[in-house]
Amino acid sequence: MKRRTFIQNASLSGIGVVTAGAAIGCNNETKTLEKENKPSTPKASLPLVVATWDVKNATAKAWETLQQGGSVLDAIEQGCRVEEANAEGQSVGIGGLPDRDGNVTLDACIMSPEGGYGAVVYLQNIKHPISVARKVMEETPHVLMAGEGAKQFAISMGFPTENLLTEASIKAWEAWKVTSQYEPIINIENHDTIGMLAIDKDGTISGGCTTSGLAYKMAGRVGDSPIIGSGLFIDNEVGGATATGMGEEVLKTVGSFLIVELMRQGKSPQEACEEAINRIVTKNKNFQKIQVGYVAVNKAGEVGYYGIHKGFSVTKFQNGENVNLPSDFYLKSS
Ligand code: SD4
Fold first, then answer.
1. What is residue 317's three-state secondary structure?
2. Of 52, 193, 204, 211, which is the active-site residue?
3. Rounded to an integer, what distance in angstroms lies between the CA atom of residue 186 and that of residue 248?
4. Residue pair 275/298 in contact by the 8 Å Cβ criterion
5. Which end of the chain is more exposed for a tag (fewer CB within 10 A), N or C?
């Protein structure tokens, strides 16, 4: 299934709610002891790259970067750049759908294994926000830069400026303007955000997230993707998580941080993703209209992923195999 259409298939009629079966009670003390007594031996074959959606070219690039001796941070940056440069992807980089005023505004962040974080929000005319985010992390005393200042910083770092609004995106925007109807209902949005997690053969973890955000958003709107703990969180002692979908819901529940903290308490990546989705659906009575998908890895290389609606998928590159995997989901058709 194409990423863009993933929740269009989630018909709201006849949807039955099925429990995710994730809210497991947790004795923190016991879990901490268990964790302390257990060496963190990889349970899965490493290295490993995993990303939101069907982005095999991006995961392949990240994998290849690791094989060539690049760091996990290099792998994340190089992998995310593939999608940013893909003009056909209408939610990332060039070709991203604009806001309601016709401006393509990009958000991205990156996290290093050392706990470093760099991000840009509302960046215009620069195709590779993930690389600018890395420069913010490595070349400035700051972690988050916005708008014109972020653009000027990127230019000072040698990034070229270019028009990111493609013919296809202009057409889509003009078609939207006929009605200009905007409800932040994910079923009518396009969602291709790439959130990527990479773990090298030694278990060192890094992650990144890059997007043009919700199509036809209000000018100035920023989503979860560039915000530490929401669209992405890495703790190299525990694991990492990243999100896609309706950013407002991820922000309100600080989803990626929540997942990493749940894994720290002993939950598997799968259990942690399911609990983070449960958190959204129990706090928002309109959850049937919302899609959010999470993917997580832990230090042992175990992977979990889960969405609210059918249609979310992840791409995993492991053991030399690059595969797109459909995700389980909360709302099951009856
Ligand atoms: C946002 N989470 O800006 C992003 C959108 C997204 O695929 O995931 N698109 O809210």
1. strand
2. 193
3. 11
4. no
5. C
> Which of 225, 230, 308 is the best mutation target for the ligand 1 pocket, counting ligand atoms within 8 Å of the beta carbon and taking the most?
225
C-beta separation of 278 from 23 below 8 A? yes
Region for 138 from its dihedrals, namely left if φ exceeds 0, alpha if ψ lies in -120 to 50, beta otherwise: alpha
Q: Is 224 in the pocket of ligand 1 (CB under 6 A)?
A: yes
Asked if residue 90 has its Cβ within 6 Å of ligand 1, the reply is no
pLDDT band, residue 43 (cuts 50/70/90): confident
Residue 183: band (very low, low, confident or very high) from pLDDT cuts 50, 70, 90? low
State if residue 3 touches ligand 1 by the CB under 6 angstroms criterion: no
**Ligand 1 contact via 268 beta carbon (within 6 Å):** no
Q: How many CA atoms lie within 13 A of 158 on its CB side?
A: 3
Q: Does the active-site annotation cover 193?
A: yes
Is residue 334's pLDDT more than 50? no
Give the Cα separation of 244 and 185 in Å (integer). Answer: 14
For residue 165, what are the contacts with CB-CB under 8 A and spacing of at least 6? 98, 102, 103, 104
* Domains observed in the chain: 48-329 (3.60.20.30)
**In terms of DSSP H, where are the helices of 186-288?**
247-253, 255-264, 269-283
Q: Ligand 1 test: best mutation among 8, 92, 246, most atoms within 8 Å of CB?
A: 246
Nearest atom in ligand 1 to the alpha carbon of residue 248 is 10
Residue 191 near ligand 1, beta carbon < 6 Å: yes
132-164 pLDDT, tens digit each:
999 999 999 999 999 999 999 999 999 999 998
Rounded Cα gap, residues 315 and 11, in angstroms: 25
Nearest to 52 by CA among 208, 200, 229: 208
* pLDDT over 70 (residue 96): yes
